[in-house]
Amino acid sequence: MCGIIGYVGEKNCTPILLNGLKNLEYRGYDSAGIAVLEGNSINIKKSKGRVKNLEDLIEKDLCGGNIGIAHTRWATHGKPSKENAHPHEDNSHTFALVHNGIIENYKELRHFLCEQGYSFFSETDTEVIPNLIHYYYEKQEKTKDGFLQAVALACKKLEGSFAILVLCKYFPQTIILARRNSPLVVGKGKNEYYIASDIPAILEYTRDFYFLDDNEISFLESDIIHFFDFDLLEHEKELIHSSLSRNSSNKNGYEDFMLKEIEEQPQAIFDTLNQDIDLHLSSSFSQIYIVACGTAMHAGLVGKTCIETLCKIPTFVEVASEFRYRNPIIDSHTLCIFISQSGETADTIAALKLAKQKKAKTIAISNVMGSSISREADVCFYTYAGPEIAVASTKAYTSQVCLLCMLAILFAKQLKTASDKDLEVLKEDLLQLPKQIENILEHKDKIQILAKQLAFERDMFFLGRGIDYTTCLEASLKLKEISYIHSEAYPAGELKHGPIALIEQNTPVVGILTEEALLEKTISNLQEVIARGAKTFIVTNQELPKNIFDFVFTIPKTSRFTSPALSIVPLQLFSYYIAKQKNLDVDKPRNLAKSVTVE
Ligand code: M6R
Questions:
Q1: Ligand 1 contact via 296 beta carbon (within 6 Å)
Q2: Mean pLDDT across the stretch 71-82?
Q3: Range of the domain at 567
Q4: pTM recorded for the entire structure
Q5: Ligand 1 and 222: CB distance under 6 A
């Protein structure tokens, strides 16, 4: 989705802004733009398509200046075009602004501004903001304070979500920024500040950050920073040092982020497990809801199995976009766990706010320090997977699975619902995962060969029972999103109730078999598809009868609950190698964005 970058300091800002935009490319976008303030003129360049197009434009007509803002746009209101790209200006060209989010009342504001004589030149919701700022500025003293007042007054009128950076041509040292429901961080350098919607965009310049809160506005110059609420009451803010390394957000010699991130899973899991979790769970919870989207929701399904088995509390998993609109029956006896790698997924944040309104106790699981869900929830636990840049989530998923198992162990201990011995065994299994994943990664060539054979298939099926079915869902999502092959995940026993009609000669079926108690039943289901001509490819940690299946990939033995963190790894590689074989952009699949900040 959209990305924001800004700079104020002593350096030439253009290369910094362009580099920041490139670092943000992974979020998905369709146009880009930059505004640099030099003297009293704002120089704006925009282009449709890749940041490279913008860079070419700037090379022809170089922007200088030490203060600027830039943006990558993912179209919501209006098609991808140069006119709709940010930065947007007010009619008098006094203000330039970049915006992430959606202004829900833009039609009313546009109508109001038209009545005041303003005109609009784009189809965006964003263009109302610089004009509204201008409208208020005209009523202020023409000072920096007046500029700040005007931005604050405009923010109060906006409904929806926004993270904005604003330049004013009369104040060539100043950037004003504000947010509501859309992230913004300010990185501190020496006599300079870097602003971004996302830490990885500026991680190479600084590791000291201010995280803006909702309804907060900030006034920035190269050596000045002030924070206010929208009534302009000033407050202090803590500078937070991030332990992320600079390498975490570059490819570090890998061809793609996705492969790098698949291979980082041992470290990500190790770092996630190696934290002290301090949580006292009240025994009065009658139910647990796990709410998330996409891959994070699939991790939640593993969490459900683990929590229900160990803690004996009914646990429900729901997609956030459904949960938020269906008036769920929850109250102060409900624990709601929200999982989000980015911590900025609009539906997950809205679901979390709903749960809080209904007085549920809320826990967030996020991979991004200071993210919106981490601040909104009563308690937040972090996965320490490091920045995940590829759109397809890999290391965040396995880290989420491990963190949920850790929480289940902790809850079960407090509630005394599982034996100490069982909990110790599971703990030990968790600790073995990094080594076991390394072991799987050593055999990735086998998966690569298989992927080459299946790269041009039209459909694939993923079958499993119990916890293996949850891995099927995740494996099928990975395949769809980066290889564009149609795929379906089914509980193996459900196939006979319809989908088996789709099995033809040579249809590829991937079976996951780690559920020992359900092994015979799953094998029988696979034999049913073999009898109808399917080719079968198996991931297992069990002894299987010989010569039934076309391909078997064996993974190390582990407990039921930790098995998804192993069985998904060959299937992540499978999707990755298929996408590579098809020459696709694995890190930035079509139509997708890394963090889905609109509903
Ligand atoms: O940042 P989040 O974990 O909230 O993101 C949720 C989904 O958008 C995300 O997992 C998505 O499904 C991935 N592209 C899957 O690989």
A1: yes
A2: 81
A3: 444-581
A4: 0.80
A5: no
